[in-house]
Amino acid sequence: MSLAQKRRFAYNISWFLLSTEKGSARGVSEFMVREFANLVQLLLIAHGGMTLLTGVLPELMSGRFTAMLLALFGSLVVAMALLLYPCFGFNRHLPKKIFLPQIFLLLWTVAGLWPLATKMDPFALEISAATAQVLLGLFALVWFRIKNGSSLLLTREMFPGKGFGLRNLLWFSLASLLFLPLVLIFFGFSAATGYVEQLSGGFVRLGVDGLYMAEQVYRQQDKTVRLAGMIHIGDQDYYDELSRSISAEPVLVLSEGVSDRDGLLRREFSYVKIADALGLSGQHRLQFPGRRVDIDQIYRDGFNGAQQGTPDVAGADIDLREFDPLTIEFINAMATHLLSSASLIDGFAAFNGWAQENLPPTASETIMHDLVDKRNQVVLGHLDAALKKYDTVVIPWGALHMAGIEAAVRKRGFILQQSRERRSIAFGRLPYADLLKTFGNSRP
User: Fold this and answer.
1) Domain check: are 168 and 299 in the same one?
2) Which domain holds residue 140?
């Protein structure tokens, strides 16, 4: 394109913008706001449609590259919707009742759709939210058509007179100041709930009144596997309730607890101080009733399983010497700096300083492989042997283990039959005054 052609093209664009809005700067700004709102509207519909298509036809939308593109597109739509929000204060013609419900639903979906996520099947909830997003978008197009009589999008005729109004700005700003903090808290809690459930494979739920741990019961013919998500510190009532649930059943409990035969720990690894500071109990106080058996016994041909009404309890965890040296140093540092410190804040600061100096960038992969994956492999190996001697096996392990263990149990042909929840921490019982005093007395 020649220089003259470029100039002519720029002139035509400028003339179009100015003439379209009667040659005023105000007209140009309203034109830009209106077209930006139209773009956001189309993106909202497209986002809902792509989410719906992903749920209905997962094979079509599978693949790492496709997932990355969908995530980037979702982030773009959220960013554009957030940029549109302040425009409602500066332009009174933008239909708030049309756009705000769509933006709210988009952000709610991204944040995890709490509390519906705790009541509905995840797939059904995802499909319902995507369908609602599309329907709201289509309703907006129909509403635009009714209002202007010719177009499915916002047109110039829907923006009569000046768009800016001081009264509109003040009312919108006041409403935002009153409701926006509540909305942000709602979305933040929803996002936190979704993250916790995703991280734990659905075995931990963050409720308004406390933290809930799930137990899921799987069956295959006459065999039953009970997976009980655990937490290292919680209310004593929670541990007692779990213990009572198996006190009179002929089951095998495959308990967790890393052993240390070679004495590699330089200091006792205990959550007692943290539990005491929070007014809670430690998992070490969970006492399963019944007969203690050595894990090697279940592999012997002459060994009989639990008698009627008498649980058996066997340690089914790994020994510390099977961990990578880096993981052992990590555990020792936690015991020395974090768990043994007189102050939680000072202990965390000391541990954080140690981690920055001593942990390489790939440390998290090594540590998580040892603490989660390697231990899961051990207990699953014992599970296969235990099911030959017992009709019911209970695995009460930390919630971070449950996603991998559950996937392996399902792979073995077990089907979910029942799910129950126990509240592990009641937020209303926490000693907030003591905690504030503790934090106030800690060093910055």
Assistant:
1) no
2) 3-199
In the numeric block, which tokens belong to residue 394?
């209970």
Asked if 253 contacts 225 with a C-beta cutoff of 8 angstroms, the reply is no
Examine the domain organization and report whether 177 and 244 are in the same domain.
no
> What are residue 429's phi and psi, to 5 degrees?
-95, -5
Sign, CA torsion 152/155/159/163 = positive
Residue 256 shares a structural domain with residue 311: yes
Domain count, the chain: 2
207 domain residue, yes or no: no
How far is it, in rounded angstroms, from Cα 385 to Cα 187?
Answer: 45
Q: How far apart are CA 171 and CA 109, in angstroms?
A: 27
What is the DSSP track for 120-189? Answer: S-HHHHHHHHHHHHHHHHHHHHHHHHHHHSS-SS--GGGS-S-S--HHHHHHHHHHHHHHHHHHHHHHHH
Model pTM greater than 0.85? Answer: no
Q: Are 15 and 74 in contact (CB under 8 A)?
A: no
Q: What is the CA radius of gyration of the chain?
A: 29
Amino acid at 378: V
Give residue 18's pLDDT: 45
| Class of residue 23 by CB neighbours under 10 A (exposed 0-12, middle 13-18, buried 19+) | exposed
**Do residues 218 and 321 share a domain?**
yes
CA distance 94 to 30: 10
Tokens standing for residue 147: 């209002």
* Domain limit, last residue, from 174, 199, 224: 199
> Cα dist. 421→126, 202, 313, 371, 407 in Å?
23, 11, 22, 25, 19
Compute the residue count for the chain. Answer: 444
Same domain? 259 vs 142: no
CA dihedral 71, 77, 78, 81 (to 10 degrees): 180
CB 213 within 8 A of CB 204: yes
Distance of alpha carbon 215 from alpha carbon 261, whole angstroms: 31
Among residues 199, 222, 252, the one where a domain terminates is 199
247 in the same domain as 170 = no
Residues 297 and 407 in one domain: yes
Identify whether residues 244 and 157 lie together within a single domain.
Answer: no
Write out pLDDT tens, residues 66-95.
777 887 888 899 999 999 999 999 999 999
Confidence band for 277, pLDDT divided at 50, 70 and 90: confident
How confident is the model over 303-324, as pLDDT tens digits?
A: 877 666 778 999 999 999 999 9
Whose structure tokens read 């592999």? 299
